[in-house]
Write a structure and sequence with these properties.
Shape of chain A: globular
Oligomer: heterotrimer
Shape of chain C: globular
Chains: A alpha/beta, B mainly alpha, C mainly alpha
Largest sheet of chain C: 2 strands, antiparallel
Structural class of chain C: mainly alpha
Distance between the termini of chain A: 56 Å
Number of domains of chain C: 1
Largest sheet of chain A: 6 strands, mixed
Strand content of chain A: 25-35%
Number of strands of chain C: 2
Strand order of the largest sheet of chain A: 6-9-10-3-11-12
Distance between the termini of chain C: 45 Å
Largest interface: B-C, 48 and 44 residues
CATH class of the largest domain in chain A: Alpha Beta
Helix content of chain C: over 70%
Radius of gyration of chain A: 25 Å
CATH architecture of chain C: Orthogonal Bundle
CATH class of chain C: Mainly Alpha
Radius of gyration of chain C: 20 Å
Order of helices and strands of chain C: HHHHHEHHEHHHHHHH
CATH superfamily of the largest domain in chain A: P-loop containing nucleotide triphosphate hydrolases
Number of helices of chain C: 14
């Protein structure tokens, strides 16, 4: 009854220094929704990119409908009926939806010229057939993210795909858009007998839509189950290897005076669209305020606006009572702020510079490192860096190695070591443990609480709800640039917070 | 640390191979055009080292290349590319020269100090403009500086044919000749080498020291490596970038002054033949490292002066020098690309072999 | 004053404008291709210079302008391939390669010119066809402007239209633009963006060769002089930036450059030609500032998203 469409046989993929896929064997059947779950970096996307021919596996073979894949390139995969909707959309922003959809198989006039009318007609036909409403003449740059995703799906369908891979499709969608997407997926599987492979790390979605689920961890496929036979908790423990059981951290002291005051803040995102809309919050000394929000709801802009990395349109920010609205990062740091940014590689460090130099940054003008004639005393720098290296349990090739060569967790520790060691009265921390291994997470969490107990005012922003609950004294939920709810951590459930995060309920402040 | 050593060794090996290959290709070009390559290269070597005056010329040109290269290093360290050194050099030279002409009769020290200051100010301002445009308006500095080069060249050409033209009928396009009391003292008879090289050495040392040994140099490096991180950590990128660009231009202006007061003693079109561009390419080959820039300047200066000697003695066009130089640049610019291409191929093979071996091992176990 | 205006807006000015604009336009059309493919091509000046030299060399060796044209197109092809090899295949810094290419062209053409033609250079080789249409002569103003221009002036207009259609009306043109704007899109569609970049480089090499051929074989009577590209490659580059790589607009930008160049020549009696020659360069800088400021403003404006996300 179940007819295999895709078979992976002993697939391995070795990147320089990383074994992304390790001897994976897996069969996906016709007409099913197969969910592939795992943490960031577990190798899900790599496996699917192999199926789509982006990479050539370094070991093993893939069979599509029983035929061995001979050449690993997207053209071959497309011809075999494989379509992929990437996490970052593969659309040309200045082209229209129709132009994007027909790319590579453009209808032509006189055998030479692009036939715009025909492209639009064919796109409309697809739109009708699958119920994915999109205006073919609209420029992709002007479409919302949800519509852009539809264009991606239409593109795959136009190319004749009947095996559709979706890489974390809901990460950028609103709940309503997610529901619509799932409705479409159900329809194409039921009516057109298509096969859907869904890469995700949201377990709720796995339960909602998939027939079977495969769990990956550190490059290996650890388990494949019928979705009906497992529950979320079981999948989660397969994903992380052991159940996530955080020990409670000891919190002492009581909140003191106001240290961060944000009032009626408005910011635009990089595209010039409103990202933060009339947002107010405050943090006191000796407390952690956690921000719970789905990615892309203005929390990044908020954090950066406080730190001086983002222009503020209106409203005000005060650090330790001092107005720092639209001041430079230097001035805001002088007012008493240290900042662990969400993207350590883009903002938090210099990958080319050595670990020692990264640890030094911000202190290079201090007397102990700077001798006469502005001479930078490398031996004192090495001593200082070495001490931090030890204290923050950084593991790598020493303080002289390039920071970019370290693992994500150790890079993060470098950033945290540097910023925490400024001993400022205010800390803002974004995504403290993104892409960080479990051992390091524990270390980082206890450091954050240590800071809190020592009287630091901490604003924490994390995509990991468990983390927010574990560290925060209070939680605010942000949706579309507005605060939708404010809670005391002990008095709220994560279901409740999840509800407010998605904008399901808005409360009057 | 060993990884850094390894990188340095790789760089050195690639540099040597590039130079050898460039000379090899140069030999083919020579042979094709009916010249004896070995004889030509011998003439080139002699042209650079056979007499003290040749060595003097090599040092003079090395000074020009090194200062221009260092000026380029200074900009690229903070992530701005000063391509406009040529124009800054020309304007610095002509203004410095004219200061000497105007102040004829004033004490030597006064004239030279004022000339140097004028060159610094003019060169600096001429770099400041594209610097501000880059930082504040985000106009590509490469294109603006290229345009400003041509504007400067045209302006100089206008001045030496018009308002600042020499009254001597032997000079068609040039300023008045400088009074000999204002010249930098000659060091080797018959060569262009002058005491200006001591001033240049001090400047070069200063640039090296600031870039490699100071906390400001460290801040510059951060800005160049990751400007966002630098701003995040509290540095004022904009100011630093504009300042570095301005100093870079000031150095170029000063090189112009050295050329006039040390070597030519007059401003005419030959004051610089795209010398800055050669310095820039030396800097690029040196991966914008100050010390390497200085060392490579000596090498390329010898190559150029040698090529001029070769033209005189063996009748081979000295343009061969540009061909050899640019071939080295092509190789050095493609270095990492060629290296990764080779590396990738090797790695793919190794991985495939490993996977194969593992699978065979696996089936054995079963 | 009337005299000056009369000189500026005389037929001679526009005739000269076309002459000055054509090589720049040809290079700018080629540069539009690399620009669309996401390559900042600063090496057009060297490409033009080599084009100029090899056109004369072919014309000199075979005593035929057509042979010169054929040879220079062949060399242009090789130069384009070489540029792509370094920039696309080996992913070298395109600015450095462009810069080095300019110097290399200076060295190579200088060396070969010395070796082949001797110090005096080559003069009086067959040059390209000049088009004189009888019916045009009867039209007063336009006749003077258009008649007696090199065939390449006409060819340039045709090529401009062809490239315009190619870029904006054919699938391959779409792929070319996508290869610069979002190469991953092509890769996931099973088209190699690198291949489009190679094609763009080759086209640019060919167009610059034509530009060079016009300089040496189209304007003067088959003469090459060292460094005769005279920064036209940079002006062409500025035209590309100004025109957002649109071949038609790039042609107009080149015409504007030609116009100011022509005014400079016509007004020599009143102003030093060096000063008037500066105008296009200064205009180019102002042009760039204007373009960038306009782009920045557009980015600020809500809901209007930037199509060309350049540099």
């Amino acid at each position: 009854m179940s007819e295999p469409v895709v078979e992976f046989r002993h697939i391995s993929m070795q990147f320089p220094g990383v074994l992304a896929n390790d001897d994976i064997s897996l069969t996906v059947n016709k007409g099913e929704v197969f969910a592939l779950v795992g943490e960031n970096g577990a190798g899900k996307s790599t496996l699917m990119n192999l199926l789509y021919g982006i990479y050539t596996p370094t070991g093993g073979e893939i069979y599509i409908r029983g035929r061995r894949v001979e050449r690993y390139n997207p053209k071959y995969a497309i011809d075999q009926g494989v379509g992929m909707v990437h996490q970052h959309f593969m659309l040309v922003p200045s082209f229209t939806a129709a132009q994007n959809i027909v790319m590579r198989k453009e209808p032509k006039k006189l055998g030479l010229f692009y036939d715009n009318a025909e492209a639009i007609r064919q796109t409309r036909a697809l739109v009708e057939e699958y119920g994915l409403e999109v205006d073919p003449t609209e420029k992709v740059a002007d479409l919302s993210v949800g519509l852009q995703q539809r264009v991606e799906i239409l593109k795959a369908l136009y190319r004749g795909a009947d095996i559709l891979i979706l890489d974390e499709p809901t990460a950028v969608l609103t709940p309503q858009e997610t529901d619509e997407l799932f409705a479409v997926l159900r329809r194409i599987v039921a009516e057109k007998q298509m096969t859907v492979i869904l890469i995700t790390h949201k377990l709720g979605e796995v339960m909602a839509i998939s027939d079977r689920v495969g769990v990956m961890r550190k490059g290996r496929l650890v388990n494949v189950k019928n979705t009906s036979e497992v529950d979320q908790r079981q999948i989660a423990s397969m994903m992380v290897g052991r159940p996530v059981l955080y020990e409670a951290l000891e919190k002492t002291g009581t909140p003191g005076e106001l240290r961060i005051e944000v009032a009626h803040l408005r910011c635009l995102d990089e595209r010039g669209l409103p990202a933060v809309r009339d947002l107010s919050l405050s943090v006191r000394s000796g407390e952690v305020l956690g921000i719970a929000a789905v990615e892309g709801n203005g929390q990044s802009e908020l954090i950066e606006a406080i730190a001086g990395m983002q222009h503020i349109e209106s409203g005000s920010v005060k650090i330790c009572g001092k107005d720092v609205t639209n001041r430079s990062p230097a001035e805001i740091r002088a007012a008493g702020l240290a900042h662990v940014p969400e993207d350590r590689l883009a903002t938090g460090l210099s990958a080319e510079a050595s670990v020692g130099e990264n640890l030094l940054t911000g202190r290079q003008r201090e007397k102990r490192f700077r001798k006469a004639f502005d001479f930078l005393d490398r031996s004192s720098v090495a001593r200082y860096a070495g001490e931090l290296y030890e204290r923050f349990d950084i593991r790598g090739a020493g303080v002289d190695a390039a920071a970019g060569d370290m693992s994500g967790g150790n890079m993060q520790k470098v950033v945290i070591a540097r910023e925490f060691n400024f001993d400022t009265p205010v800390l803002i921390i974004a995504q403290p443990t993104r892409g960080v291994d479990v051992g390091a997470i524990e270390f980082i969490h206890s450091r954050i609480i240590e800071k809190r107990n020592a009287g630091c005012a901490i604003l924490l922003c994390s995509a990991d709800l468990d983390e927010v609950f574990r560290l925060s004294d209070r939680i605010v939920t942000i949706y579309e640039g507005r605060v939708t709810g404010e809670f005391v951590t002990d008095q709220v459930t994560r279901e409740e917070v999840g509800y407010y995060m998605t904008g399901a309920r808005e409360v009057a402040q | 640390m060993s990884e850094r050593m390894q990188q340095r060794l790789r760089y050195l090996a690639f540099l040597v191979i590039s130079i050898l290959l460039a000379f090899g290709i140069g030999a083919i070009v020579l042979a094709v055009t009916d010249h004896e390559p070995l004889a030509a290269y011998k003439a080139m070597f002699q042209g650079a080292f056979s007499a003290p005056r040749h060595i003097g010329d090599v040092l003079e040109y090395a000074m020009v290349l090194a200062l221009c290269g260092l000026a380029c290093d200074l900009g690229s360290r903070v992530g701005i590319f000063n391509v406009g050194g040529e124009g800054q050099l020309l304007l610095g030279a002509i203004v410095a020269c004219q200061v000497g002409v105007w102040l004829k009769g004033s004490p030597t020290w006064l004239v030279m100090v004022l000339a140097a200051l004028a060159a610094i100010v003019v060169g600096g301002v001429y770099a400041f403009i594209p610097g501000v445009l880059k930082v504040k308006v985000k106009v590509n500095e490469v294109i603006t500086t290229i345009m400003l080069n041509t504007v400067a060249a045209l302006l100089c050409s206008y001045l030496v044919k018009g308002p600042w033209q020499s009254s001597s009928k032997y000079v068609t396009a040039g300023t008045e000749k400088l009074n000999a009391q204002y010249w930098f003292g000659g060091l080797i008879k018959g060569s262009k080498l002058s005491t200006a090289i001591f001033a240049a050495a001090v400047i070069a040392f200063f640039i090296w020291y600031v870039m490699q040994r100071t906390s400001r140099g460290y801040e510059m490096k951060l800005i160049g490596q990751n400007p966002r991180f630098a701003r995040f950590s509290g540095l004022r990128n904009d100011t630093v970038v504009i300042l570095c660009m301005t100093i870079s231009g000031a150095i170029c202006g000063l090189v112009g002054m050295f050329r006039v007061y040390g070597a030519e003693h007059i401003f005419k079109s030959g004051i610089s033949n795209d010398y800055y561009f050669e310095g820039l390419m030396v800097a690029m080959i040196a991966r914008y490292q100050p010390l390497t820039t200085i060392l490579l300047s000596l090498f390329f200066a010898a190559l150029k002066i040698g090529a001029e000697g070769m033209q005189a003695s063996a009748g081979v066009s000295n343009h061969i020098y540009l061909i050899i130089q640019t071939i080295i640049i092509f190789f050095m610019a493609a270095e990492s690309g060629i290296f990764t291409a080779i590396e990738n191929r090797r790695m793919q093979k190794a991985a495939r072999r490993a996977a194969l071996a593992r699978r065979e091992g696996g089936t054995d176990n079963e | 004053m009337n005299d000056i205006l009369g000189r500026i807006f005389s037929a001679g000015t526009f005739q000269q404008m076309l002459r000055s604009a054509t090589p720049v336009a040809l290079a700018a059309i080629g540069g539009s291709m690399t620009e669309h493919a996401g390559i900042m091509n600063i090496g057009m000046d060297g490409m033009i210079l080599m084009g100029a030299f090899f056109a004369v060399l072919g014309s000199f060796l075979f005593q035929s302008a057509m042979a010169g044209l054929a040879l220079t197109l062949g060399v242009g092809l090789i130069v384009g391939l070489f540029f792509a090899l370094l920039v696309v295949k080996f992913k070298s810094d395109e600015f450095i390669i462009g810069c080095a290419l300019n110097t290399f062209a200076l060295g190579l053409t200088g060396y070969l010119s010395d070796s082949v033609f001797g110090a005096s250079g080559a003069k009086g080789n067959p040059s390209l066809l000049v088009v004189r249409l009888p019916f045009l002569r009867k039209i007063p103003f336009i006749g003077t402007v258009l008649n007696g221009q090199s065939i390449l002036v006409w060819v340039t207009v045709v090529l401009m239209v062809i490239m315009w259609v190619f870029v904006y009306k054919t699938p391959h043109g779409f792929w070319l633009r996508a290869s610069g704007e979002k190469p991953e899109t092509l890769r996931t569609a099973g088209i190699s963006p690198e291949r489009m970049k190679w094609i763009a480089s080759i086209l640019c090499g060919l167009f610059c060769a034509l530009a060079g051929a016009y300089l040496s074989l189209g304007q003067l009577s088959g003469t090459f002089s060292k460094g005769m590209s005279n920064s036209r490659g940079y002006i062409a580059f500025a035209c590309v930036i100004f025109a957002a790589a649109h071949p038609g607009k790039a042609y107009l930008a080149a015409l504007m450059f030609g116009f100011f160049d022509a005014i400079g020549m016509r007004l020599q009696a009143y102003v030093s030609s060096e000063l008037t020659q500066m105008i296009p360069y200064i205009i180019t800088i102002l042009m760039m500032i204007y373009v960038v400021v306009r782009q920045n403003n557009r980015r600020r404006a809500p809901r209007k998203l930037q199509g060309m996300a350049k540099s």
